[in-house]
Design a protein that fits this description.
heterodimer, A: 95 residues, mainly alpha, Histone, subunit A, two-stranded antiparallel sheet, 3 helices, 4% strand, flat, B: 485 residues, alpha/beta, Amidase signature (AS) enzymes, 11-stranded mixed β-sheet, 15 helices, 11 strands, 12% strand
Chain lengths: 95, 485
């Protein structure tokens, strides 16, 4: 069973704020799902390579050709905050 | 028969013969939406003005004899697929106001084919769910019984196809999200081989599993729509540069010489007896059509597929959904004080419970100290699942399984127990893990509710699935039944 502290740590890594009732609910739900994952320990996988995706394509490349970007206004149209043709963000470094 | 209940091919024939215009046909569908949408709730957005404008353009093409088999026929797009200038929400508060600046590759292709788009369909938020109850807006109801779920995550698309609110729809399928709702709503739904259809413009959930596919009233329509959306696209590096066959050519009324396998692990514990009975009758029918049926097929790693899926899909989702930070687009917690608070509150309020649950599961599975035990282990078991399918396809041309172990369940029945909800996809998940094509077709009714049969094939053998499904539909009429709405 996960502890409340572990749930809060995962939430921090995922950058999702969680309320106290959410922590308790997630603790029970995530623990029961993680317990189900333990069934995988019954499968022998020594020497088995991992599969990332099922199609045998590797390192797909294309010519690096310049092409027009989207119009700036189209991209900024969805911005929650904007300022002088740019995304407005909060300060990352505080002095 | 009602106009809105026709197949795509029947509707196209009426347009081609000029018995009706696309504008008239589109009005009939818009009227049907108006009449039943209050009860079904299949749409996030209905687009009547756009649809009528596209219908007028289609009528122009029809008049010039410049029309294809989809020109002027109303279709519906799942709201996880980007449509330029039409909001694309993923049924999430996070994207409630999001206006894509471009069309998905499949939308470009359908537009070129003359699509009339009547709207965007409701879904489980970010395609995470099996009942469409995880929509942030409202649940979609199963037109066969409004107290029951239509399945998910493409529940809006499936419900709309069976309810006459469009002639065809697109869905997306990461673990069964086309096939399971198709089965629940008496619809034909195909998840193509991974790489068959471009994912460019599909809002990403689990990138190694996601695939877009058609949901229609019969197999021939699925063949038609698949042909229109399939093909290589350099903007999706995982789309495969193989030619697209003429899928309609694959349709034949018999199954002589075809070897079908019934993997015993799919007749799982907890499978409802009337579902199993319907499926056994359907398999007998396939035999009657000339197929040989092998009941001794085994895929022993199948019981582990669910755990593999619920490690891999949330892991990929946790990375894909990191982009929702409240800066570039989407919901933003504007009154938060600091950057981190803004990001954490944006994600707290913008995402619903299931999305947050999966992001956190994935974050945990990928975190230091757990990566090998969960993610790497799951990827290794994934290899075994794929190898078992490869071996079985040495002696079988296709596999037949139930689409879902149960009939459609009641709204609210599984909401509080995520693991029970996940079990609803136990028969469809292995197909995504192995990247194979899978199709669900109507195979009868149990207690008055639809039962789906799943057909699984070799990579890029969509033609085999279509052939099996088409022959079955020539001999049965389940797919022609419509709900009493």
């Amino acid at each position: 069973m996960l502890t409340s502290q572990e749930v809060r740590h995962i939430a921090l890594l995922a950058r999702v704020a969680v309320s106290d009732p959410e922590v308790e609910r997630l603790r029970a739900q995530l623990s029961s799902i993680l317990a189900h994952f333990e069934t995988l320990n019954q499968v022998a996988t020594e020497g088995v390579p991992p599969t990332g995706h099922a199609v045998p394509l590797q390192n797909v490349t294309r010519p690096d050709e310049p092409a027009p970007s989207f119009p700036r206004a189209d991209i900024l149209a969805n911005a929650p905050l904007q300022d002088e043709d740019a995304f407005r963000v909060r300060a990352v470094l505080e002095f | 028969m009602n106009l809105y209940d026709l197949t795509v091919r029947q509707a196209a024939e009426i347009l081609r013969k000029k018995e009706l215009t696309s504008v008239e046909l589109t009005r009939a569908v818009l009227d049907r939406i108006e009449a039943v949408e209050d009860r079904v709730k299949a749409f996030v957005t209905v687009t009547p003005d756009l649809a009528l404008e596209q219908a007028r353009q289609a009528d122009g093409r029809l008049a010039r004899d410049d029309a294809g088999p989809l020109t002027g026929v109303p279709g519906l797009i799942k709201d996880v697929i980007c449509t330029r200038g039409v909001r694309t929400t993923c049924s999430s508060r996070m994207l409630e106001q999001f206006m894509p600046p471009y069309d998905a590759a499949v939308v470009e292709r359908l537009n070129a084919a003359g699509m009339v788009m009547v709207g965007k369909s409701n879904m489980d938020e970010f395609a995470m769910g099996s009942s469409t109850e995880n929509s942030a807006f409202y649940p979609t109801r199963n037109p066969w019984d409004l107290e029951r779920v239509p399945g998910g995550s493409s529940g809006g698309s499936a419900a709309a196809v069976t309810a006459g609110q469009c002639f065809y729809a697109l869905g997306s399928d990461t673990g069964g999200s086309i096939r399971q709702p198709a089965g629940f709503c008496n619809v034909t739904g195909l998840k193509p081989t991974y790489g068959r259809v471009s994912r460019f413009g599909l809002v990403a959930f689990a990138s190694s599993l996601d695939q877009i596919g058609p949901m229609t009233r019969d197999v021939a329509d699925t063949a038609l729509v698949l042909g229109a959306i399939a093909g290589h696209d350099p903007r999706d590096a995982t789309s495969v540069p193989l030619p697209v066959p003429d899928y309609l050519q694959a349709l034949r009324p018999d199954l002589k010489g075809l070897r079908l396998g019934i993997p015993r692990e799919y007749f799982v514990e907890g499978m409802q007896a009337p579902v199993e009975e319907a499926l056994r009758r359907a398999i007998a029918q396939l035999q009657h059509l000339g197929a040989t049926v092998d009941w001794e097929v085994s895929l022993p790693t199948t019981p582990y597929a669910l755990a593999v899926y619920y490690i891999i899909a949330p892991s990929e989702a946790s990375a894909n959904l990191a982009r929702y930070d409240g800066v570039k687009y989407g919901y933003s917690a504007l009154d938060a004080e600091s950057m981190w608070e803004a990001m954490e509150q944006t994600r707290q309020h913008g995402f619903g419970p299931e999305v947050k649950r999966r992001i956190m599961l994935g974050t945990y599975a990928l975190s230091a100290g757990y990566y090998d035990a969960y993610y790497l282990k799951a990827q290794k078991v994934r290899t075994l699942i794929k190898q078992e399918f490869d071996a079985v396809f040495q002696r079988c041309d296709a596999l037949i399984t139930p689409t879902s172990p149960t009939i459609p369940f009641k709204l609210g029945e599984k909401v509080s127990d995520p693991l029970q909800m996940y079990l609803s996809d136990v028969c469809t998940i292995p197909v995504n893990i192995a990247g194979l094509p899978g199709m669900s077709i109507p195979a009868g009714f149990a207690d008055g509710l639809p039962v789906g049969m799943q057909i699984i094939g070799r990579p890029f053998a969509e033609e085999t699935l279509l052939r099996v499904g088409y022959a079955y539909q020539q001999a049965t009429d389940w797919h022609t039944r419509r709900p009493p709405l």
